[in-house]
Specification:
323 residues; alpha/beta; two-stranded antiparallel sheet; binds zinc ion; Rossmann fold
Length: 323
């Protein structure tokens, strides 16, 4: 038996179990767009005249984010510029970079590409080759290098394009997984860094906003499919986040048994955030002695990693030159 939309007589394409409602295509789109608009408004994530850099990897979340912000921009004026980080992963990146570019072009949004090779000196593939398999006593793997460098380069890119804020594609599932992971690790301080709203903590640290924070991953996938949005569904070949995968499966199981669990966890996080942020966040940041970007120490993590890779490359007699 086909269910009908809870708002009109059309056939439903989606069942939001957490609120017991069915949606047709039109009302589903409206519901997702409203969630983003309300979240942006509630926390004043974007204000009139802002220049927003959107980190677009080509994956579903960031591409859908770009489309939703383009839609939101029809209502009140702000500027958008899409930035893509090319980590230099030969088997994975070229396609997603193209997809990011094509989406920006389709929406009439300026697109800028920043590569690890140009700004760090090594592609991620080269880093993995230089550092070996990351086994023998190396405590951090490819994902650690990539994550730190991507964060650094995104901030650089956002500054470079003159953005007031940097929008990233974190969805409800990402946010809730991150919250639970940090709780299980006892890392409460980390939860004070990024919450529902942003604080300006350093003039050179472009505030990050997460407009998709209230949108479940499922709804992002469906939004992309229903609106014929081209996204890259492939996964990074280096990604081995075993712990996160366990948390994801557990959360999905809880959501299945108790619809609304993910939203309840998000609400708990949002209530705790102001307290955590006040208690733990360090507000004094120095400038990195090498690159000048804000850091808590003397040399930022991105520069520390770059120096490590350079040293190792020298030791092993490997040379990688800029093309
Ligand atoms: Zn409807
Ligand atoms: Zn630095």
């Amino acid at each position: 038996m086909k269910h009908k939309c809870s708002k009109c007589s059309r056939d439903a394409v989606y069942h939001a179990r957490y609120e017991g409602k069915y949606y047709c295509r039109k009302h589903f789109n409206e519901m997702v767009e409203r969630k983003v608009k309300n979240h942006v408004k509630k926390y004043k994530l974007i204000e009139k005249g802002d220049r927003i850099a959107v980190g677009v990897s080509g994956g579903k979340d960031s591409v859908v984010l770009l489309h939703l912000l383009a839609k939101l921009r029809e209502r009140f004026p702000f500027e958008l510029v899409a930035v893509t980080i090319d980590e230099g992963i030969a088997s994975y990146r070229p396609l997603s970079v193209e997809i990011a570019k094509r989406n920006a072009k389709k929406l009439g949004i300026e697109h800028r590409l920043y590569s690890f090779k140009e700004y760090i000196g090594f592609t991620l593939d080269e880093t993995v080759e230089i550092m070996g398999s990351f086994e023998r006593g190396e405590r951090v793997g490819a994902c650690s290098y990539c994550g730190v460098w991507r964060r650094w380069l995104l901030n650089y890119a956002a500054q470079d394009v003159g953005a007031d804020k940097l929008a990233v594609g974190h969805n409800l599932d990402d946010e809730v997984q991150m919250f639970i992971m940090n709780i299980l690790r006892g890392d409460i301080a980390r939860l004070g860094r990024t919450g529902p709203y942003y604080e300006v903590i350093h003039e050179d640290l472009v505030p990050r906003i997460k407009p998709l924070r209230e949108v479940p991953e499922k709804e992002i996938v469906l939004y992309a499919v229903l609106n014929n949005i081209e996204v890259d569904f492939s996964e990074c070949p280096y990604a081995v986040e075993a712990f996160r995968a366990e948390i994801r499966d557990w959360l999905n199981e809880m959501e299945e048994k108790h619809p609304g669990t993910k939203y309840q966890i998000l609400r708990s996080y949002d209530k705790l955030f102001p307290l955590i942020a006040k208690t733990y966040v360090k507000h004094e940041l120095n400038r990195c002695k090498i690159c000048g970007q804000p850091t808590t120490g003397e040399i930022c993590k991105a520069c520390q990693f770059r120096l490590q890779v350079e040293k190792k490359a020298k030791e092993r007699g490997l040379s990688f030159r800029l093309e």
